[in-house]
């Protein structure tokens, strides 16, 4: 073929590669940004990066369209029309900061709690919380309360770590991977990589999800469970495993509180509390002596079975309580089968498969290690079953106990922190005892008395004022939800509007689309944001909002602080916060401006520093009154949380030159990160890589790196004593007492051993009237509302029909192109439907956050997202239906306050096709105009 | 009309694992990004922020539901791009010679400077794997990243198509399917790799690995649960008996 054209097969790829961290979702992969002529030309995954090892998802690869999106805000905005109109004028940063400080400084001096500062999908919480603490308001949290706090808090309270950011399956050794309630998101690339890895070696995946899409589509076994019943299903597995004795007794005795003695006298004021010696050490019976001994004493062999009587009070090991509860017929497969929508045979088959892999395919690694009792072990024994879970099981009003149930199952199998099981990522494992407790004491003009968020140990740590009323606007850490470790962002606007527990002056939010997809009851929230009192003032007097893009929330702000895109900013993904560690290493990372902004925008964190400097906030101000930090990059390098510990662990200044972990600030630190590809990683030695909570080798390694100040070995809490303390109070013991209307609920739900109870919505609405469960899932190629402004991603997920299972499809006589009216106890929507067979027969669902308001995101008003797209949020209220007691009952988990998105019940009816999905809302005026009619995107020649 | 080479020295192509593809579209967008910036005209997008956004993509993922005779319905994700057929009808139909199959590696390419945008090749392709770029008026198709796989400016490990490099699940493999000893050929052999629509006679080079059988544990017919029964033989029916068992079991540890 002499006439075959000659192709240049070695074109120049780019002028330069700049390595930074992705922000197209929350997973924080490493990316190589290829630059041509100073512009972003192509983005690919960074092969050296601990999170994604070179791969990159659809969102990450579409970053170039996000970075250049026409929806980017261009300058600070001051509202000139009524709230919600979208009428703004562009102002200078000087004027914007002057306005903000003019609102904030007086309330700081008078009553800092009049500021509610909530930061949405923030990846800099250790910084934003530090700012809020120094401002002095108790009203700070990020978005965990409406996301997955049940998962995080249940993990930390039970085993000192949680899924995703704090742990992962042992992908290299696991032989059976079971995934609950995960659509296709966190943590995006690592799960896909892990599934690919285990499938390549023939290991099995079991997917538990009402919807068979994404990971569940490739699962070898699919369990299409009824929403809200995962806890019941898990406890039935526990029932079977206990009855068959298929539990790891050695592991339970050594590494959990199963052998710890519990006061078992119902008349004792300490009924249900754990027995301790005079030094406060938990007591077990030592099998060698038959006598009580501290659980961690050298040579002690904890007994799982013996009881102990002291001063007339019988003490029984946790194991007894556990056996009594879960061997009860209440949890037999036959009894849970109907409710879960899974046959008893299948439940047994899965239990048998878990037992088989855990106990007949044991893994032994020849790594010598020494435990906290001083005992040397020649090997590390693994039970190669692993689990992962996220919002599907946690976003229910029984979510915390369901997540606890899953951890109970993992621990009974002996599969946490062992080869082939689930492994923590530094800085986890971390016992609850070294987490802070919440702080809420306000002093005008002064910082708050400590960090806002933490882990309560009992009623004494609740965030209550002296009169017993909630100290926080979101009512976190109150008797309504005592263990609300991430706050309740979804209740802030509703409570501020109701003046319950008190009125605020300024609502300051970052990166949270609260007037749209991030709120329950979207229409109601819009009304709350725009409603005026009798004197004609807005009920919520002032709203400051920061976002990079023209989201629906922008229109409801009085002042908008425009953020940069992720390629134009400094960030640190810090070990003090939500780091990027892997099970084999501690890691952190930065973002840095690989391009400078071409608009009058600033990174939000830098804007906060400028605002802090203007107000002279303590923590940001030197003794001579000068500013400590000029911008966020300055803070990242020079801030020290305690001596030697800063936001970044890599390349600090030691006594003999550069060092990692503990060390003084290093002015060239960011350059070192950039030279290393934007991240730092320190690997864990092999003999410290497993059994970390008990492995003194790991403990010492963690102290050296600065993760702990001293070794912190601990045992897992199958029985959570903190929960029992709340129950005891509800039973009438102690100083701090719950209000009477919450007593029964606290007694019932704060059980120290995992329980299952029906989602609250089942009690509040007529299940016959509303027989169908309704869910959302996030598509793999979209991150909440962000993807829609992305020209490439919206071509993949531009529409979101309501997917209807065969049974309902046929019963309603639906055909392709039909529409349905979907109603809940709270509202009604009219939406397009589509048939899906691989779906639980009583469940409908749609993609999350595809529906858009006209005028937002620089889309045309006739974009399908704005005409046919819809939100389920209109059907979900932030409050449960009134009970006639005059109280406002949150639609949240009663333990953590997590938003119970997935409790929703609906009915569905075929209806004639309207012109647009209903409810249709009036367009808002775009502050950025519209995008171009065509893209031919090529940066190079 | 354009002639195909009698044979090619290698048969470079993709092997796509339908058992592992989670349908995440990573390959779709990575392809879009690389090929917008590289070979030929950019992949354009019409009405990108409007009512009918429609752009050029060289690789798309489709999802199909499958209802087996017994058991639950399944969802299969199916990525599709040019299969670089040995008997490529898109080449023979080309009136200008713009479409051609390379002798050295079998890659089917469009020489954009000779393409008149007549669209015959897209009609001839039974797989719908070619897309006319509305802005440039030329036919676009998968190049197998011919400007990556031999590119001296890339590190050697990156000399694979963009879709393969980015696939998070590792469901995409690249290599010489003409060499029976290549990793991809062995994978096809092991996993029963298949041609797409072999009845079309196009002899596609790309292969698909079929999904493994699903829902097997639970699909055991009634009665066969006994296979698993020993694993669940009760040590006790009641908590009391269980604690007795516990005591004995602990003795053995």
How many helices of chain B does DSSP assign? 8
The overall strand count of chain B is 11
The CATH class of chain B is Alpha Beta
Kindly give the count of domains of chain B: 1
The side-by-side strand order for the widest beta sheet of chain B comes to 10-1-11
As a whole number of angstroms, the C-alpha radius of gyration of chain B is 25 Å
> Strand content of the residues of chain A, in percent?
15-25%
Oligomeric grouping of the chains: heterodimer
The global form of chain A is globular
Under the CATH scheme, the architecture of chain B is 2-Layer Sandwich
Shape of chain B: elongated
* Greatest contact between two chains: A-B, 112 and 96 residues
What is the straight-line distance between the termini of chain A?
Answer: 29 Å
Q: Look up the CATH topology of chain B.
A: Alpha-Beta Plaits
Main sheet record of chain B: 3 strands, mixed
The biggest sheet of chain A, with number of strands, parallel, antiparallel or mixed sense and barrel status, is: 7 strands, mixed
What are the segments of chain B in which pLDDT stays under 50 over at least 5 consecutive residues?
none
Helix content of chain B: 10-25%
Strand content of chain B: 15-25%
Structure overview:
- The complex is a heterodimer of chains A (941) and B (253).
- By secondary structure, chain A is an alpha/beta fold.
- Chain A has 25 helices and 37 strands.
- Chain A has a 7-stranded mixed β-sheet with strand order 5-4-25-24-23-6-7, with helices on one face. In chain A, strands 32-34-33-36-31-35 form a 6-stranded mixed β-sheet.
- In chain A, helix 7 (215-218) links the parallel strand 10 and strand 11 (221-223).
- In chain A, helix 4 runs parallel beside helix 17 and helix 8 packs antiparallel against helix 11 (333-340).
- The mean pLDDT of chain A is 96.
- Chain B is an alpha+beta fold and 253 residues long.
- Chain B has one domain (12-209): Alpha-Beta Plaits (2-Layer Sandwich).
- Chain B contains 8 helices and 11 strands.
- A 3-stranded mixed β-sheet of chain B has the order 10-1-11.
- The model of chain B has no long low-confidence stretch (mean pLDDT 94).
- At the A-B interface, strand 3, helix 1, helix 6, helix 7 and helix 8 of A face helix 1, strand 2, strand 3, strand 5 and helix 4 of B.
- Strand 37 of chain A pairs antiparallel with strand 2 of chain B.
């Amino acid at each position: 073929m002499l006439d075959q054209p000659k192709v240049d097969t070695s074109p120049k790829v780019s002028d330069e590669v700049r390595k930074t961290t992705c922000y197209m979702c929350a997973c924080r992969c490493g990316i190589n940004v290829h630059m041509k002529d100073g512009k972003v030309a192509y983005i690919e995954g960074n092969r050296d990066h601990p999170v994604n090892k070179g791969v990159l998802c659809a969102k990450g690869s579409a970053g170039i369209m996000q970075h250049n999106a026409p929806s980017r805000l261009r300058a600070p905005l001051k509202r000139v029309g009524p709230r919600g109109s979208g009428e703004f004028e562009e102002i200078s940063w000087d004027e914007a900061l002057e306005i903000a400080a003019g609102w904030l400084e007086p309330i700081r001096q008078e009553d800092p709690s009049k500021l509610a500062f909530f930061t949405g999908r923030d990846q800099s919480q250790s910084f934003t919380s530090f700012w809020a603490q120094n401002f002095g308001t108790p009203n700070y949290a990020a978005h965990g309360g409406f996301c997955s706090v049940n998962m995080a808090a249940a993990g930390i309270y039970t085993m000192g770590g949680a899924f995703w950011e704090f742990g992962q399956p042992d992908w290299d050794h696991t032989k059976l991977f079971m995934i609950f309630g995960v659509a296709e998101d966190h943590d995006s690339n690592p799960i896909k990589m892990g599934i690919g890895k285990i499938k390549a070696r023939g290991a099995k995946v079991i997917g538990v999800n009402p919807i068979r899409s994404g990971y569940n589509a490739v699962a070898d076994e699919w369990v299409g469970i009824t929403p809200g019943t995962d806890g019941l299903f898990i406890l039935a597995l526990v029932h079977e495993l206990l009855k068959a004795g298929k539990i790891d007794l050695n592991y339970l005795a050594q590494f959990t509180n199963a052998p710890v003695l519990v006061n078992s006298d119902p008349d004792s004021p300490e009924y249900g509390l754990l027995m301790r010696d005079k030094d406060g050490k938990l007591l077990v019976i030592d099998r060698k002596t038959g006598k009580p001994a501290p659980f961690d004493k050298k040579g002690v062999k904890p007994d799982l079975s013996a009881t102990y009587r002291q001063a007339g009070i019988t003490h029984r090991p946790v194991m007894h309580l556990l056996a009594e509860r879960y061997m009860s017929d209440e949890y037999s497969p036959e009894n849970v089968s109907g409710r879960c929508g899974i046959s008893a045979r299948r439940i047994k088959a899965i239990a048998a498969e878990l037992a088989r892999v855990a106990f007949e395919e044991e893994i032994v690694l020849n790594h010598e290690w020494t435990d906290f009792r001083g005992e040397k072990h020649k090997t590390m024994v693994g039970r190669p079953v692993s689990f992962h879970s996220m919002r599907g099981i946690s976003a229910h009003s029984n979510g915390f106990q369901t997540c606890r149930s899953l951890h109970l199952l993992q621990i009974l199998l002996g599969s946490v922190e062992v080869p082939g099981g689930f492994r923590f990522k530094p800085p986890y494992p971390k016992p609850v005892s070294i987490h802070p407790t919440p702080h809420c004491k306000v002093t005008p003009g002064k910082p708050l008395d400590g960090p806002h968020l933490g882990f309560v140990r009992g009623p004494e740590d609740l965030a209550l004022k002296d009169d017993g009323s909630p100290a926080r606007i979101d009512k976190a850490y109150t008797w309504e939800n005592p263990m609300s470790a991430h706050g309740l962002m979804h209740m802030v606007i509703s409570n501020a509007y109701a003046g319950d527990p008190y009125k605020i002056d300024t609502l300051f939010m970052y990166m949270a689309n609260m007037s749209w997809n991030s709120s329950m009851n979207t229409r109601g929230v819009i009304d709350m944001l725009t409603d005026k009192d009798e004197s004609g003032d807005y009920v919520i007097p002032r709203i400051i909002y920061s976002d990079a893009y023209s989201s629906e929330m922008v229109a409801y702000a009085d002042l908008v602080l425009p953020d940069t895109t992720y390629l134009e900013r400094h960030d640190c993904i810090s070990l003090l916060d939500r780091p990027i560690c892997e099970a084999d290493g501690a890691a952190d990372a930065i973002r840095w401006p690989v391009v400078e902004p071409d608009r009058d925008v600033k990174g939000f964190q830098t804007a906060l520093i400028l605002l802090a400097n203007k107000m002279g906030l303590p923590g940001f101000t030197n003794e001579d009154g000068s500013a400590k930090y000029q911008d966020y990059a300055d803070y990242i390098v020079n801030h020290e949380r305690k001596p030697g510990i800063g936001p970044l662990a890599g390349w600090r200044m030691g006594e003999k030159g550069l060092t990692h972990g503990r060390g003084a600030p290093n002015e060239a630190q960011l350059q070192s990160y950039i030279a290393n590809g934007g991240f730092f990683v320190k690997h864990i030695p092999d003999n410290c890589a497993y059994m970390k909570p008990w492995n003194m080798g790991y403990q010492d390694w963690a102290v050296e790196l600065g993760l702990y100040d001293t070794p912190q070995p601990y045992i897992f809490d199958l029985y959570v004593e903190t929960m029992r303390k709340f129950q005891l109070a509800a039973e009438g013991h102690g100083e701090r007492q719950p209000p009477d209307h919450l007593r029964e609920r606290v007694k019932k739900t704060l059980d120290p051993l995992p329980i299952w109870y029906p989602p609250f919505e089942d009690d509040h609405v007529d299940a016959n009237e509303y027989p169908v469960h309704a869910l959302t899932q996030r598509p793999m190629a979209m991150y909440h509302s962000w993807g829609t402004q992305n020209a490439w991603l919206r071509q993949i997920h531009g529409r979101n029909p309501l997917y209807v299972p065969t049974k309902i499809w046929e019963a309603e006589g639906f055909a392709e192109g039909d529409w349905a009216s979907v109603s809940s106890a709270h509202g009604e929507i009219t939406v397009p439907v589509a048939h899906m067979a691989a779906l639980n027969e009583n469940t409908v669902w749609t993609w999350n956050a595809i529906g858009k308001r006209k005028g937002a995101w620089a889309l045309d008003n006739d974009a399908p997202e704005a005409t046919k797209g819809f939100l389920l949020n209109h059907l979900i209220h932030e409050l449960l239906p009134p009970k006639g007691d005059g109280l406002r009952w949150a639609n949240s988990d009663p333990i953590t306050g997590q938003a119970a998105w997935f409790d929703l019940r609906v009915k569905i009816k075929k209806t004639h096709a309207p012109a647009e999905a209903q409810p249709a809302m009036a367009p808002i005026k775009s502050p950025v105009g519209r995008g171009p009619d065509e893209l031919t995107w090529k940066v190079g020649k | 009309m354009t002639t195909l080479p009698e044979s090619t020295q290698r048969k470079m192509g993709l092997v796509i694992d339908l058992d592992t593809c989670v349908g995440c579209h990573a390959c779709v967008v990575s392809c879009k990004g690389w090929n917008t910036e590289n070979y030929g005209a950019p992949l354009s997008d019409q009405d990108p922020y409007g009512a009918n956004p429609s752009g050029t993509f060289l690789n798309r993922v489709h999802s199909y539901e499958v209802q087996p005779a017994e058991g639950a319905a399944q969802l299969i994700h199916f990525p599709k791009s040019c299969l670089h057929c040995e008997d490529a009808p898109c080449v023979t139909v080309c009136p200008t010679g713009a479409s051609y199959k390379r002798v050295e590696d079998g890659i089917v390419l469009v020489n954009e400077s000779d393409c008149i945008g007549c669209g015959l090749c897209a009609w001839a392709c039974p797989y719908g794997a070619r897309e006319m770029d509305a802005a440039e008026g030329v036919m676009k198709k998968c190049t197998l990243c011919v400007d990556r796989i031999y590119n001296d400016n890339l590190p050697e490990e990156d000399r694979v198509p963009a879709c393969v490099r980015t696939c998070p699940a590792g469901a995409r493999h690249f290599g010489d399917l003409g060499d029976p000893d290549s990793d991809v050929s062995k994978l096809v052999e092991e996993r029963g790799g298949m041609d797409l629509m072999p009845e079309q006679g196009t002899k596609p080079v790309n292969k698909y690995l079929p999904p493994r059988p699903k829902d097997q544990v639970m699909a055991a017919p009634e009665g066969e649960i006994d296979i698993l029964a020993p694993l669940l033989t009760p040590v006790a029916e009641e908590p009391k008996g269980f604690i007795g068992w516990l005591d004995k079991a602990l003795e053995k540890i």
